[in-house]
Amino acid sequence: RGLTGLLTALAAQPWTPLDVVVVDNGSRDDTSSWIEREHPWVRLLRIQPGLSLAGGINRGMAEAGGEYRLVLNQDIELAPDAVAEAVAVAREDPGCGAVALKLRLLRTPAFLNGLGNRVEGRSWGADNAMGQLDLGQFDHWREVPSSCFAATLVPRAAWEQVGPVDEGFPLYYEDSEWCYRARAHGLTVRLAPRAVAHHAF
């Protein structure tokens, strides 16, 4: 499903206008030509040769417009009102640095992939509540330590204040480090439990 599911879900979002930028980070198949043919409403940004994930995020964020920027992995499918719900959470908090969407597992959608993530003092990073049956038992959470950049909304002003993702992280932890800096700037990392995204993981 991949990009087909993601772009179909984005096109169906009631929140408009959406400026969708797909970063083709050095693909070696016909992804770019497929996007141009099947989704001409999408802006395609080709990066050659391929950069790290962090580098791709930075190029996409630099290209994107708008007051809010939604970072998404290619294997995400959004619920119909996910964008509007995430924006609503950001707008209710003037100090919002990022909004974590509720990630559910695409193949077993009753179960959580994560509600943001965390890196503790002496451990690897982990997704909050991963593998839990989602009964709404965490929906009262307002903040999380960091947000997984598989599906994160970032206000433009926060991105400009905190700066780009550290490209020294080739894969993983770039989101936790960015959120750490956001919190050091006094910004919050919020959770939007009604903004649901399904992740193929």
Report on this structure.
The chain has helices at 2-11, 31-38, 53-63, 82-91, 156-162, 174-184; strands spanning 21-25, 43-47, 68-72, 76-78, 96-105, 112-114, 117-119, 125-127, 151-155, 188-199. The chain is an alpha+beta fold and 201 residues long. The strands form three sheets. Strands 3, 4, 5, 6, 9 and 10 form a six-stranded mixed sheet that branches. It starts with a helix and ends with a strand.
Explain the layout of strands and helices:
Blueprint lengths: L1 H10 L9 E5 L5 H8 L4 E5 L5 H11 L4 E5 L3 E3 L3 H10 L4 E10 L6 E3 L2 E3 L5 E3 L23 E5 H7 L11 H11 L3 E12 L2
Parallel strand pairs: 1-2, 5-10
Antiparallel strand pairs: 3-9, 4-10, 5-6, 5-9, 7-8
- Strand percentage: 25-35%
Instruction: Write down how many β-strands occur, each being a DSSP E stretch of 2 or more residues.
Output: 10
Low-confidence stretches: none
Helix coverage percent: 25-40%
What characteristic shape results from the CA principal axes?
A: globular
Largest sheet: 6 strands, mixed
**Terminal CA distance:** 12 Å
Number of helices: 6
User: Kindly state the mean pLDDT as a whole number?
Assistant: 95
Structural class: alpha+beta
Secondary-structure element order, N to C: HEHEHEEHEEEEEHHE
Q: C-alpha Rg, in Å? A: 16 Å
